[in-house]
Design a protein that fits this description.
It contains 10 helices and 15 strands. With 346 residues, it is an alpha/beta fold. It starts with a strand and ends with a strand. It binds nicotinamide-adenine-dinucleotide (NAD). Nicotinamide-adenine-dinucleotide binds next to helix 1.
Length: 346
């Protein structure tokens, strides 16, 4: 089969750090075209990757230059871009959060079904080596049932990451719709659903805007911190802490308290996964690194997407998975706004 020609919509930080180099590096894919309204940016990247630059993604979709599309623009544009791409006959890898409303996320899933195109969501925490090893250990059964967990994802904020710095869409309510909950929370909701093999049934908590300011120096109208409590169908309870105001080293850890011991992921700088058993045994696993904003490691998401296209098999993280993880976070936002714990109904 000829190489899968990938078109990238939104040529910002995630595209530049991951999707473009990873599409270029995969022996079965190539970058066919790139679309972004910022002309200089898209032209320079087009030259770098030997791909056609477009300032209007709809023109790219009309061309016959791509077989599949990566949607990596601002959150509020994901749904329409993905739907347009699938209707144009392209498979889609859409960044997280897949949409900003449940209705849009459902429309995306419906369009994938109708057009018979693959819809994959960029929830790449599942693919990171420490998380893969932790899942193997949990599924191995020696730790017994998970009873409780705490998980956190905290960094100094997207202004140090986005190609547009503090003027970025990340701080604009209309374009982002969600703050740190949509950025980091949706990753953690997805990771925990996958690690636990269980669905969340309730969530409550507090969202706050503590420190982030927009270009006008006024506080942003999005959350920059969130403290959530959750419960699963099987009764597992846990906490999730999310922050854009951790002005120190990034934290991305998860601790699972199980019947026969404790599993810690991302708490030791050398050993990505540590299992402490109730009988005193300790297993320390030196596994591949967790990607951080400062130090990017290959995410594996493009490799999975290309593999699913080549082998014509359902993507490993499909639209319904993206929907369920998004629903946890949208419910958390409603719960915080109402000051209540709410049921998650998907
Ligand atoms: N999976 C992950 O780990 C991960 C990490 C970072 C970002 N993301 C997600 O990727 C998406 C992009 O984030 P980023 O960090 O690259 O942001 P960014 O601000 O660095 O880049 C966004 C890009 O989108 C472009 N854009 C704006 N409007 C557009 C339009 N109409 N058509 C095409 N492009 C348009 C901007 O010009 C900019 O180049 C977000 O949804 C974010 O949540 C995912």
């Amino acid at each position: 089969m000829a190489k899968v020609r990938i078109g990238v919509i939104g040529a910002g930080a995630i595209a530049q750090h991951r999707h473009l180099p990873e599409s270029d590096a995969n022996r079965y894919s190539t970058v066919g075209a790139i679309a972004d309204p910022v002309e200089d940016r898209v032209k320079a990247l087009g030259e770098q990757y030997g791909a056609t630059p477009y300032t209007d993604y709809k023109k790219m979709l009309k061309s016959d230059e791509v077989d599949a599309v990566v949607v990596s623009g601002p959150n509020a544009l994901h749904a329409q871009m993905s739907i347009d791409a699938m209707r144009a006959g392209k498979h889609v890898l859409c960044e997280k959060p897949m949409a900003t409303t449940r209705a849009d996320a459902k429309r995306m899933v419906g369009t994938a079904k109708k057009t018979r195109k693959f819809l994959m969501i960029g929830l790449n925490q599942r693919l990171m080596p420490p998380h893969v090893r932790a899942k193997e250990i949990l599924d191995g059964g020696r730790l017994g049932k998970v009873l409780a967990f705490r998980t956190a994802f905290k960094h100094p904020g997207p202004e140090g990451w986005s190609v547009d710095g503090s003027k970025s869409w990340f701080f604009q309510k209309g374009a982002a719709a969600m703050g740190v909950t949509g950025d980091l929370g949706v990753h953690k909701a997805d990771l925990m659903r996958w690690l636990l093999g269980d669905e969340f049934v309730s969530v409550g908590g507090v969202l706050a805007t503590l420190d982030k300011k927009g270009p006008d120096r006024k506080p942003i109208s999005l959350d920059d911190n969130a403290y959530l409590t959750l419960q699963t169908k099987k009764g597992i309870v846990g906490s999730m802490i999310l922050s854009w105001t951790n002005y120190g080293a990034e934290e991305n850890y998860t601790v699972l308290y199980c019947q026969n011991g404790v599993l810690s992921i991302g708490t030791d700088p050398e050993y990505g996964v540590v299992a402490d058993y109730a009988n005193g045994d300790r297993e320390m696993h030196r596994v591949g690194k967790m990607s951080t904003n400062e130090e990017q490691v290959a995410s594996g998401i493009i490799d999975d997407f290309v593999d699913s296209i080549r082998k014509n098999k359902k993507p490993s993280i499909d639209g319904m998975e993206g929907y369920k993880s998004l629903d946890v976070i949208l419910t958390a936002m409603d719960a915080a706004a109402q000051g209540k714990t709410l049921k998650i109904r998907h």
